[in-house]
Specification:
Distance between the termini: 36 Å
Largest sheet: 8 strands, mixed
CATH superfamily of the largest domain: 2-enoyl-CoA Hydratase, Chain A, domain 1
Shape: globular
Oligomer: single chain
Length: 716
Amino acid sequence: MSTAVSLEVGGDGILVATMNLPGRPMNVVGDTLMEGIAAATAKLAEPAVKGMILTSGKADFCAGGDLDRMSKWTTPEEPFEASMAMKKVLRQLELQGKPVVAAINGHVLGGGLEIALACHARIAIDDPKLKLGQPEVKLGLLPGGGGTVRIPRLVGIQTALQICGEGNDIAPAKAREMGLITDVAKDRDELMAKARAWIAANPKAKQPWDQPKFRFPGGDSRSPAVVQMWAIAPSIASQKTWGNYPAVQHIMSSIFEGGLLDFEAACVVESRYFAACVMSQASKNMINTLWYQLNAIKKGASRPQIGPAGVPASKVKKLGILGAGMMGGGIAYVSAKAGIDVVLLDTTQALADKGKAYSQGLLDKAVKKGRSTPEKRDALLAKIQATTSFDDLAGCDLVIEAVFEDRAIKADVTKKAEAVLAADKVFASNTSTLPITGLAKASARPANFIGLHFFSPVDKMPLVEIIVGQQTSDETLAKGFDYVLQIGKTPIVVNDSRGFYTSRVFATYVMEGIAMLKEGVHPRSIEVAGLQAGMPMPPLALQDEVSLSLSMHVADQTKKDLAAEGKSVPEHPGMGVIRQLCEIGRIGKKAGKGFYDYSEDGKSLWPELTKLYPTAAQQPEQRELIDRLMFAQANEAARCYEEKVLRSVADANIGSIFGWGFAPFHGGALQFINAMGAKAFVARARELAAKFGPRFEPAAVVVTMAEAGGSFRDAG
């Protein structure tokens, strides 16, 4: 008798099989769960049983595959055989000759959805927060339990490509509209009642693909309409992925080939592609970082645990924000959305109101698209108080300043806020470049002073970089960490340093691209290299977004600060280009002109750019350009680790992907080095240093790793 699935036959002859995997917070697909489903299938075969309802005893239906198990596979035979074994059980379930209904009470993702697809009907509770989907592609995998075989046969090839290739969550109402589920129910009681009714109405249920006259909805891979779609689909995928995500290619291949084959043969093909995905370096990178390391951070791996019981979790009930510009307005929105009362303060009421209007604009769009209601919009806006009075900060648990990057202005607002703020409350700066320890000198309580570096636009960017100053207490860090989780963001924790981690390493990417331009590399080649490398935006376009004038301001401020300390650093070769463009008024997108020209029709590279920086007759290979862009970032991240700016490998990798978009398929800046191997990284870095300068000399920590055969790893 399986402990993973409990079985109960009611007086109506319907078997209720309840998945409840012992020792796990969620049901996950593995041998134990599949043995339970096999036992349920055997019970279903008994003459007295009329049908089966498969449901869950946990809050969610099933979360997907067991990644702990997958991470131990070392040969392609292991994932292939596991995939085929799962499909054997599911095939027996759907061919038993009796109706089976999946009663979906919570999230059903990945392998969990594949189990539900093997049922003859799927009924879900109609909760917009309930997630259905095949998210495997986001970890470099494809559905290995029949997803690329059943979904095309259920909803059509084009929709299946969207579901499996994009991996997005689908709400029950939308899933029903697509044909992915059969029906919805308002609550658990109705869910079970509808499942029983469906079984009674369909005593001899068969899957569509097991019917004699089955045809793919919209046609199989041979049909003219689908052939036209296949003619362009690979190029669209290539345009989005630049060939960096093998799972996307494998999903397309599995669906295409499965559309030419019978069901059983298509299942074998899918298992082969599943094995190829599991064995790929991209999948190993993404699972390591975007699953294990990300989950460790969300569970508080970077949060201090003080004393025997640790620092108790805290909640911000009232938040003060100084500066109602785009950043301040964005922080106000995400905080109010999390249920926090917000005081949004600026120098004039008009500016404060404008900051609140940012939330109004976002909420109006949500209402227009049917994602919210006027009542919910008004309730959220009521949580934001726009003001000019520092007295309104009384009672705040946390105050965040998001004013202009000027020490004098920041010092002034710090003192004014602290005059009202209770002695044990936290003051944070949203600075992206100025050292927190220096800013804390204006504070009467530097132990309560911390950096909370948000990214723009705040409502979309998932990361907050928490910066710990020299005197920041662990209690303050814990409170800052808890607030970031409270607003639904991902926190990384770094020690104070000029540029911290994200701004410092991000700058190497754009500056390397600009240095190439100065050397005579064609700007189009530079931009394509950035995209080929897997970055979300090419370097010159990204510098325009950030603003050339801001980068020059930061560089000048840094130079001034270092001079005051009796220090200096050589200027990056790309900085001269920024200065030259700023001098002629090309300061970036906000001015309508930078490396690109901007208009209502879009943007295009400034034609005069190649006259200002003539293109060299001999152009470098794209591989060299890609290496320069990636090595510049990874090497600087390694230096941050070496200098103890970074506190963990997980913070480095998650910060690089979520902070500035370091190519996710590499698994982050330090995982890039791990995957390549420290020895190979050092050798290539030295080749680049010999050709382009000492900025490419490998960080000492990587040289040591290369000699010892080590890699970047967090303890535990």
